[in-house]
Each structure stands twice: as structure tokens, then as C-alpha cells.
Amino acid sequence: MSLTKKVFPAAIGVFLVLGSALGVRASEIVVSQAQIDRLEIHIAEVRSAAEEAIALLPGTIIPPMNSRVAVPAPFAGAVVTVDVLPGETVASGDALMTIASRELVETLSQLRQAEANLSAAQAVAQRYKGLAEKRIASPTRAAETEAQRAGLQAVVEEHERLVSLGNIKTNADGSYSLIAQRAGRVVELNVAPGANIAAMAPAITIDTSDDLWVEAQLPASLIGRVHVGDTIQLENGAKGKALSVSHTVDPRTRSALLTGSLPADSGFVPGQMVTLSIHRKAQASGLDVPASAVVWLHGQPSVFVRTDAGFNVLAVTLKGKTLHGATIEGDLTPGQSVAVSGLAQLENMIGEE
């Protein structure tokens, strides 16, 4: 910038005088091609906007809801072995962890006792049912024995459900193994060998899908402007869709929650911080230019439009801006060119007028 001020003021004055003599508009900056090359001023073509940027927000990559599952330990006990490591891929049915549990031993014992009691009650109920049909025993007595049998059946079923929680595998020594119910990748181990674990505490967390979601805080001023189905674009060009937009402002963050989906091959991982932009179908008058083409002059967004003599400063309406592009409206047509670099040097030339 300082180099430009020292080297080019006189040349700029000459070009401005020549520009006036040739009928160049007063708002134009007269710049020769040699100057453009020396100042490394690059240009880009103005295009009709298929989409317009609505917002640029910080976000966090998260796993899709219900794709990250916790594997709980149905019975309290001590961890004997851990058979997987974080990041390891597991298949459905793989053993994950072995836990020695007194609770399991007691529950199995209660199940065996309940099964024995049920067997005896079934025999009694069957006997009295036969006697009642022959009018030897009271039908009421037969109904009572059937009710006792049904009660013991319920006890057996309760213990069976307890033992089958999580589809665990019981071992002969009183321990049990946690089994992967779905294929996926181990995310986290919450306990290590030798540690105690409470009943129903999550022992292992598994991601069962490679798909990703992104979560962002949406300012209250944008509520109503962002809708489900709007395009989400990340800094590496990966695109997704808005899945949900909360219309309630969280009093702690003073913002609403935006959740969107991303393809599995987007190149991100859960927990990663990203910058995302929200896009929607543009109006007919919308134009796309690189984000670097828009500069603020006197509090007004403007672009430097390429002309035969140099560049024309044009004030525009900035409808949205992302890291890569900007959607504008103004006295421009698709196919025209705007400066995307060297804008500081062009601003200096304005000052030299």
C-alpha cells in the first residue's frame, strides 16, 4: 500500500487527466494494463446467482441423532476385561467387555427358583382343572390355582427380561459379556479393567453411521429467514441441508438452534468446529461475485467494475456473504468483471483523485 502511494501518484494523476480528456466518467479509475499486472489486480466474472447466502455461522459437527448408541451394563459389577479400543470397528454380535456381577448370579438363581415354582403351580392348576371338569373339585378352587400359576408365570417372565437386557451373554463363572447390537465404530470407553460399574450405566459408546450432522447457534435476527431445506455449505465446499430450525431463543445463548445434515464423505469428524453458510434459491436479480470482490467504501458495500479505461466504483446491495462468495444486487449484468484482488491499491487511487 505504501509502495503504491510513493510510486504511482503522479502516474495516476496523468491517467485521470487523460481519462477526462477522453470522456471517461468521473467515477472511473483510469488504470493501464501494465499497472494492473504490476499491482497484481485480478478480476472475476459476475454471474447470475442460483443461490443467495443468508448467513455465515460457526458450528459444531455432531453425530446424527440415534446413530450414536450407548451400550449399558444391565447388572452392577467389576470390569474383568475390555475387548475393544476407541476407534476400533466392531460387527454386530462382537464381545465388547466382560463384567463379573453378583447381581447377575442372584438374578439367575431367582429365575431358576421361579421356574421351579411355576412348574409345580402348572401341575396343580392342570390337576384341579381336570377335577373341576369332572365335577369332583370346585371350579373356584381350579380358578385359584390357575391364578397362582399366572402370577408365577409373570415372575419368570420378569426375571427372563432382566437376564436378557442388552442381549448379554452369560458365562459359567457368573460373569457376563456385553455384546455389540449393531455394527459401528467405538467412540468411547467409560470404564477400564478393574473398575466398578453401576447397573444400567453406559459402558461403551458406538457410532453406527458415518453420516454427520452440524449444529449451529442461529441469531434471533435470522429466525424466520432460515428454513428447513435451505442449503448448508462448509468451508471446504461440502454441502448439506437444514433439517430443523428452532423458533425459540435460548435465554443463555440468545440464539436459536439450527441442525443440518452432511454427507459422510464431507471430510469432518464429530466434535470439530466449522464455519457454515446458509443458502437458498436466489431471486432473479441476484448476482454472484467472489467474497473478496466486495469492499466497504464510505459505509457502503461496493465493487470495482472493469471498464475499458480501468475500473468503475459501483455501490451495491449486499444480500449475503460467505467465506467464498457474496450475493449482491446493483447496476451490473452477468458477464461483467470485477476486481477480486488489489482492492487496497484501487482504494488508494481513489484517494489520489
Structure description:
- The chain is an alpha+beta fold.
- It is 26% helix and 37% strand.
- It has helices spanning 2-7, 9-21, 33-38, 102-133, 139-163, 343-352, and strands spanning 28-30, 43-45, 47-48, 51-62, 68-73, 77-82, 89-90, 95-100, 169-170, 175-179, 184-189, 196-197, 201-207, 212-219, 231-234, 239-245, 255-262, 273-281, 287-290, 295-297, 300-306, 310-315, 317-321, 325-329, 337-339.
- It has a six-stranded antiparallel barrel. It has a five-stranded antiparallel beta sheet with strand order 9-10-8-6-12.
- Helix 4 runs antiparallel to helix 5.
- It is elongated and about 115 Å long.
- The model is unreliable at 1-26 (pLDDT under 50).
Helix/strand structural class? alpha+beta
Q: Count up the helices.
A: 6
Shape: elongated
- The tally of strands reads 25
Computed over alpha carbons, the radius of gyration is 36 Å
Alpha-carbon distance between the termini?
Answer: 16 Å
**Proportion of strand residues:** 35-45%
Mean pLDDT comes to 86
Largest sheet: 6 strands, antiparallel, barrel
Q: Order the strands across the largest sheet as they lie in space.
A: 4-14-17-16-15-18
**Which regions are unreliable across 5 or more consecutive residues at pLDDT < 50?**
1-26
Question: Helical percent range?
Answer: 25-40%
Helix and strand layout, with pairings?
Elements: H1 2-7, H2 9-21, E1 28-30, H3 33-38, E2 43-45, E3 47-48, E4 51-62, E5 68-73, E6 77-82, E7 89-90, E8 95-100, H4 102-133, H5 139-163, E9 169-170, E10 175-179, E11 184-189, E12 196-197, E13 201-207, E14 212-219, E15 231-234, E16 239-245, E17 255-262, E18 273-281, E19 287-290, E20 295-297, E21 300-306, E22 310-315, E23 317-321, E24 325-329, E25 337-339, H6 343-352
Antiparallel strand pairs: 1-22, 2-25, 3-19, 4-14, 4-18, 5-13, 6-8, 6-12, 7-11, 8-10, 9-10, 11-13, 14-17, 15-16, 15-18, 16-17, 19-24, 20-21, 21-22, 23-24
